[in-house]
Design brief:
Blueprint: H1 2-21, E1 23-39, E2 46-49, E3 51-64, E4 69-74, E5 76-86, E6 89-109, E7 114-127, E8 132-140, E9 145-153, E10 156-168, E11 172-181, E12 186-194, E13 200-220
Antiparallel strand pairs: 1-3, 1-13, 2-5, 3-4, 3-5, 4-6, 5-6, 6-7, 7-10, 8-9, 9-12, 10-11, 11-13, 12-13
């Protein structure tokens, strides 16, 4: 019983020591992203393209320097570009999101001036802009039909981040992140009508997911 108490005391003392040595840093993060909407179904005459966007917002980092493990989180405004080719015509739009990533990170020091890190964790995304987008028509002359395309975007989605980067001079952090969608970001509905009678002959639906590469820079005060 006495040895168990000693062990408990040692563990508690180690925890207090690690907490006392922990570092909390605040900063501002911004960056560039390259986004492409992945279509779950093959819509004839419809394809997606890569589009660029940007993000910016406050960020915090909590690090335990003894073991190199930490957590970082941010609240970011994200202007995300999306683009479709609709029957040979390019349609583009800007979507507006609030992103909240929370990452577990591991950092290895390379001396007093630099360190490298890997990070991974969940990200919540809230759409604060348009929820629908009329993409126009796709004509099928062989079948004498025309399909009207309507894209809708979810109010929220969930994704996962995997990133690597470097910390320079204890204040500047540079990194690359790939954001993997775990839920759909929206859907597409194609309503097919007879070109002569305007009678609806078919409806085709499919989901869209945002696949995003991000280059990011953070300055910690």
């Amino acid at each position: 019983m006495r040895m168990k108490r000693i062990y408990s005391f040692i563990i508690a003392l180690m925890a207090l020591t690690m907490t006392a040595n922990a570092q909390l840093s605040w900063g501002v993060e911004g960056g560039y992203d390259l986004n492409k909407l992945d279509l779950s179904d093959d819509f004839s005459g419809l394809s997606s393209n890569n589009r660029s966007g940007f993000f910016i917002g406050p960020k915090a980092k909590f690090t335990l320097p003894i073991v190199g493990v930490g957590i970082d989180g941010a609240i970011l405004y994200n202007n995300k570009g999306v683009s479709f080719d609709v029957d040979g015509t390019t349609e583009t739009k800007s979507l507006h999101y609030i992103n909240v990533p929370i990452n577990l990170r591991y950092q290895i020091g390379l001396g007093s001036l630099a360190a490298v890190y890997v990070a991974t964790g969940p990200q919540w995304n809230w759409n604060i802009g348009d929820k629908s987008w009329s993409l126009g028509d796709i004509a099928n002359t062989a079948l004498s039909t025309v399909g009207n395309l309507e894209s809708t975007f979810e109010r929220s989605s969930f994704s996962w981040n995997i990133g690597v980067g470097a910390m320079l001079f204890s204040h500047l952090q540079l990194g690359i992140t790939y954001n993997i969608p775990l839920t759909k970001s929206g859907s597409i509905l194609e309503t097919v009508r007879d070109n002569a009678t305007s009678v609806i002959t078919d409806q085709i639906t499919g989901d869209t997911k945002n696949n995003t590469w991000q280059a990011r820079a953070t300055y910690y005060f």
